[in-house]
# Entry
Amino acid sequence: MLRFLLTRLSLIIPTFIGVTLLTFAMIRLIPGDPILLMAGERGIDDARYAQLKAELGLDKPIIIQYAHYLNDMAHGNFGKSIITREPVFKEFLELFPATIELSMTAIMIAVLIGLPAGIIAAVRRNSVFDHAVMGFSLTGYSMPIFWWGLLLILLFSVNLGWTPVSGRMAVLYFVEPVTGFVLIDAWLAGDWKAFQSALRHLILPAIVLGTVPLAIIARMTRSSMLEVLNEDYIRTARAKGLAPPRVIGLHALRNALIPVITVIGLAVGGLLGGAILTETIFSWPGVGKWLIEAIRRRDYPVVQGGVLLSATIVMIVNLGVDVLYGLINPRIRKGR
Amino acid sequence: MTHRILKAGMVLAGAALLAAPIQAKTLVYCSEGSPEGFYPALFTAGTTFDASSRPIYNRLTEFERGTTKVVPGLAESWTVSEDGQTFTFKLRRGVKWHENRNFKPTRDFNADDVIFTFERQWKPEHPFHKVSAGKYPYFDNMDMPKLLKSVRKTDDYTVVFELNAPEAPFVANMAMDFASIGSAEYAAAMMKAGTPEKFDLEPIGTGSFYLASYQKDAVIRYKAHPAHFRGKAKIDDLVYAITPDASVRYAKLKAGECHVMPYPNPADLEAMRKDPNINLMSQEGLNIGYWAFNTEKKPFTDKRVRQAMNYAVNKQAIIDAVFLGSGKAAKNPIPPIMWSYNDDVKDYPYDQAKAKALLAEAGFPNGFETDLWAMPVQRPYNPNAKRMAEIIQADLAKVGVKANIVTYEWAEYLKRARAGEHQTLLLGWTGDNGDPDNFLNVLLGCAAAVRSASRWCYKPYDDLMQQARKIPDVSKRTELYKQAQVIFKEEAPWYTVAHSVVYKPVRKEVIDFKISPFGQHEFHGVDVK
# Structure
């Protein structure tokens, strides 16, 4: 197990370097200069422009800039936003709980619905239920998130008035941020109404963000279950006279879960991507919306630092999934 | 029995819910983005000013809400010397500062605060100059470092500004956001505590609202300043719900989750007009969208060619197709809501025969080939430059001129335009201080010619500009600017396209909201039913 962990950890360093190189190069490949964008029609005189460029370190050769950037990263310094002049790490910490809260809820919805739906579809193969689940999941998988989000807002918020349109909590309520997770903060403050409001605000964005992973999990669970159900040991279990729920729940599911967990792990990475769109539609104050804004304004330090921090989170999640995977599947743990 | 108790409980709960809004009057504004910070002098974005200078701070002079008229603010009155270089401001007494958990003011606003505000931005050796990365873009842009000679107080309630040259718009400049007055006492206290940047992040002002809390990208909360010198605001709580997407803002407005929203999608305007709960307010903006000719490059060095361009293009077609009716055809470089607008100027009519004749006279009977730059972004003065360029291109083809549409990424576009790489280009301007100088001189004067879109320097016009800058008297300046507009039309360095109309959808329960010609949002004096 230790060797397994060490191998996985040693892979993180090259991945890090890859991420820094990619974000550093990509944001500079997009045309546009942060200083000129800030100045707009009003323009800026040449001396002042040169001075600002020097202050931001953008006047140096690109290789030197990259070296400085790597050096700063190595010292845990993510730089300051060109726009707000606040440290990137501080802004990230401020916004990240919102993204986590949304992503966790989304993945919970996806697992709680996707897993049972996939299992039932596999057990009742070729039934109406099976076809319905597969049909829905294909639709869900192919749905453009932006369109889907606006559609739900129009139906549930504007026409039916059941859920709020956007934001994390109604503006009437205010809870002191302790953890940054609005649900937990409202609960800690004992403000039941604020908690309800936060929950109501969470429903639509979580459904929108959870749609794609839900579809993937349902499909994956179904096919993996089908494969396992045909294995010899399942037949043996059945022949022993075990009750069907026990066969499916204990013998089949445990084995079928291995690929499903991998998929869930991968979906967490995908969620951060989906969060960019979902957060924009629902004005959800998270990391995704922050990064989009930073790209638009060519706020280099925020894009570089924000992407790197997000990538770190994804890597940690994937590492966790790998470890979990090893725990479930001894074949992997033992390196065979 | 249980049922009855439940019912009674529900009635009580219902009554409590109904009673809740009466406790405090709250206005929710669905703003379009997060502010860059809370000290306006450090920034240039309207979104930042809406969240900082307008609710939190005051200035020596201010714009009357909904107009470009300059009225007393923290200064009760002012005088200008004969030579137009010395401005003396008499300050208001008894103006109270906000307080927060870091700071309790011990004195009212006075001349030290004014001096602190300007010296911080002006003098590199000032202890606060470098705080928060110390860049003051608007102060620089308005040429204040070159203009100011000294700022001093003669007593606690009198401040004297001496300038290096006469500058008539100076009083209006003092009403701009960068000139928002901060507390010298707060600055000193934060410096002493070793946290000078708190001055910029946790603002203390004299404005109608004080900052209660801010969650980045989510919500800004303000409370009414009870001791404001114009009296407490009519609403108790002001909330900015940050909502970047225009469709979502509209959905929130419809659902009653906010009272006022800025920047609606043009496509939504029709539905807003029909909505019984929404009052769609509109006003001509303080802006101009133009098509400029590079007067340094052939064939646009010839006035006749520029005039021919003015005859050749159908303005109404552009207003209809690009502005979807939300624009007003422009004939002058300044909008009609600005003082000194010359309504006697006659615009060039759409007359392609006349255009051809002028081209022939200038030696181009078969037309010529030119570039036509179109901006890649939507701006308040031009919702769709690409479409506009296509219409112009089609009209030009009819008079034998082949125009090639060119576009670049926005920052690159501005950079190349300033370098004068274009022959003709679409651009525009939104006013800063409501002074005609801010359009007529800043965009068309000789000093601007090295970087302006038309690179036009015409002495008879520029003489009028220089003369008008030196006279404080508005009626005399009006005369000069009116003459300048006549010269401009005759020389035709631009084809003036349109002044766009600004729309503000506001819920019916909002009372007395006014659209600012500067595009800003102000809530002192606004009430909710």
Observations:
- Chain B is about 35% helix and 20% strand.
- Chain B touches chain A through 49 residues (CB under 8 Å).
- The domain at 58-203 of chain B is CATH 3.90.76.10 (Dipeptide-binding Protein; domain 1).
